[in-house]
Amino acid sequence: MSARARLALFAAGAVGLAALLAWGFSGLADFGHYPGPYGDVLNRVAVRQRHVTSVVAATVFDYRGFDTLGEEFILFASAAGVALLLREARERDAVLRDPVADRTVRAVGLLLVGPAVLLGLYVVAFGYLSPGGGFQGGVLLAAGLVLVWAAGSYRAYSRVSPMTVVDLAEGLAAAAFPALGLALLASGGAFLENVLPLGTRGSLLSGGTIPLLNWTAAITVTAAVTLIVAEFLEELAVPLRRPTR
Amino acid sequence: MSYLPYAVAGWIFLVGLYGIVTSRNLIHLIVCVSVVQSSTYVLLLTIGYKEHGTAPIFKDLPLAESQRAVDPVVQALTLTDIVVGVTVLALLLALALDAHRATGTLDPDELRALKG
Question: Looking at the domain assignment, is residue A181 inside a domain?
């Protein structure tokens, strides 16, 4: 199909889609007039029922924990897919080169590794009390590890994130989420039902299963992002094979 | 005026779609896919927003004010959406790398298997 014909087809489709979207949006509530009631109910009951002060975290790891399980599996599958695609095609025993030589980048990177990792741990640990959580903190932790690459070298990066450890953490943490759900099921509750002691409201020891699932998600996300970054960095370090055609 | 955020979400979606259709480079195409995806963030947060609403975090907010807080469900969806989006983006980029290795080109029109 020629580029012009494709564009014409798209224009016709886009006009139709835009009309459909406009029709659909006009049936939704005005901006700022949330129709509820699901979110309102959660806001009213979550703190009393779960003793955590971030209702978003309570939603992610408790009320909609089953959905989060699905999200974790998407995360796991894509990280595994990246590793599968890139590792398979890569030449073995190729020469590693470290592309970072700039002294300023190294100094600033080195300076930021500690704060980034600390911030990541803080965001994870207090995720169910204040804004944050395992998903956001996990990305920050992985970013801290990437700074090791920026500050030091690829070899330093692969030393702080050995692939066997990362692979193992990724798999185990991804498995821990459903395993916890099944354990709760076996102990007589429902799948992922929050039956653990709820602790004191607003303290780190609160929320029953929420902190456990929060840390599980943090490890999964950290490992997944670290794995993905490592795979792409290795592409940088290893000269690409010549095109076969 | 109160429908403007919905219009923004729809616009981002269509602009991303236009980019996908006219793209001549797989990397550019993948960025366009993530543009399309980001329209879902705008839409989700728009649906859950309340006028003069606050974040659904009750660390400092008294519980009596819970009805002022915006919908936590769409916020939870958006945050997992973002993280999952990043990893799916990485998977697509890995596929593009693989396609480049196999064929030596990143132009979707040149990739015979993708030709439509």
Answer: yes
| Residue to test with chain B: of A82, A166, A222, most B Cβ within 10 A | A82
Spatial contact of B98 and B27, defined as CB atoms under 8 Å apart: no
Domain count, chain A: 1
Q: Is residue A15 part of a domain?
A: no
Cα diameter, chain B: 62
Per-residue pLDDT in tens (0 to 9) along chain B, 116 residues: 588 899 999 999 999 999 999 888 999 999 999 999 999 999 999 988 888 888 888 877 777 777 788 888 999 999 888 888 888 899 999 999 888 888 888 888 777 665 55
**Best residue in B4, B81, B87, B103 to probe A by mutation, most A CBs within 10 Å?**
B87
Say if CB B116 and CB A1 are below 8 A apart.
Answer: yes
> Minimal Cα–Cα distance from B51 to chain A, Å?
4
What pLDDT is recorded for position B92?
Answer: 93
User: Percentage of residues in chain A with pLDDT exceeding 90?
Assistant: 22
Q: Yes or no: say if A72 and A170 are a contact pair by the CB < 8 Å rule.
A: no
Domain definitions of chain B by residue range: 4-114
Cβ separation A139–B86 shorter than 8 A = yes
Would the CB atoms of A55 and B72 count as touching at under 8 Å? yes
Q: Which domain holds residue A133?
A: 36-237
Q: Are B72 and A228 inside 8 Å of each other by CB?
A: no
pTM for the model stands at 0.84
Residue for token pair 């599958």: A77
Q: Which pLDDT score, from 0 to 100, does residue A245 have?
A: 45
At residue A189, φ and ψ (nearest 5 deg) are -90, -170
CATH class of the region B4-114: mainly alpha
Residue A154 lies in a domain: yes
Residues of chain B contacting A7 with CB distance shorter than 8 Å:
21-22
In a domain, A86, yes or no: yes
Looking at chain A, the whole-number percentage of residues with pLDDT higher than 70 is: 90
Interface test with A, best of B3, B83, B88 (most A CBs within 10 A): B83
How far is CA A132 from its chain centroid? 12
**Lookup: tokens for A99:** 């592309």
Specify the range with the lowest mean pLDDT, choosing from A18-32, A196-210, A231-245.
A231-245
